[in-house]
Design brief:
Elements (H helix, E strand, L loop, with lengths): L3 H23 L2 E4 L3 E4 L2 H40 L4 H37 L7 H20 L4 H8 L1 H27 L6 H15 L1
Antiparallel strand pairs: 1-2
Helix pairs in contact: 2-3, 3-4, 3-5, 5-6
Length: 211
């Protein structure tokens, strides 16, 4: 149903929406001496509490990812019943396992940060309480780090749960990257350099002939 052209249009639309949404929500923050950077607009506070973090940043992506993973699982079950080559069925099973594990990792990595953001927006900690403020900053750093793992963990999940992906990575690293690096190093070592002694000897002979 989705063509490449439609996919490009949807990508530009979503990128534009994300930029406009980020500017509008970012303009609602205010810097206070005791609380730091907090939401000062009541409408933005309610929006972040009841829609942005729980729905747009948490529930909606989880539902979409889970729905497509269930569709992939259903597709594999349907393929197993059909008379298809064994290699095709193995590949489809591997892809389904990769998708399911990616969704599980996505849920586990996104939910803690969203829950913390909802709590911290509604109950900000004042800097007048140093210990509570320091604990809050530490928890924020931990949950942000966990949330950022979500953007880098796909490669490692696919390495663990797909033998075909491991073979492909090994082929690219060993056969292509290593060979190119090896050829490049050999090319540098085999370069010829001019001999300064020969050049000096030639220049001396030319000067003697001129004399």
């Amino acid at each position: 149903m989705c063509t490449l052209k439609l996919g490009r249009y949807l990508s530009f639309i979503f990128i534009g929406f994300a930029i406009i949404h980020g500017i509008a929500l970012g303009s609602s923050y205010d810097v206070q001496l005791t609380l730091g950077c907090v939401l000062s607009n009541y409408v933005a506070l309610q929006y972040s509490t009841y829609f942005f973090y729980p729905v747009l940043g948490g529930f909606l992506p989880i539902v979409i990812a889970s729905s497509f993973s269930m569709l992939a699982y259903h597709n594999v079950r349907r393929i197993v019943r059909r008379q298809l080559p064994i290699v095709r069925r193995k590949l489809d099973k591997q892809i389904t396992a990769m998708v399911l594990m990616r969704v599980i990792a996505f849920v586990c990595l996104v939910l803690p940060y969203n829950a913390y953001r909802i709590y911290s927006i509604n109950f900000p900690t004042s800097q007048s309480m140093p210990m509570a403020y320091a604990v809050g900053r530490l928890l924020q750093a931990i949950f942000i780090s966990i949330n950022l793992i979500n953007f880098a963990i796909s490669f490692y999940i696919f390495i663990l749960f797909s033998s075909r992906f491991r073979r492909q990575v090994k082929f690219v690293v060993v056969k292509k990257c290593w060979q190119r690096w090896k050829c490049w190093c050999c090319f540098i070592n085999n370069q010829t350099e001019p001999d300064n002694n020969i050049e000096a000897h030639n220049s001396q002979m030319e000067s003697e002939e001129n004399i």
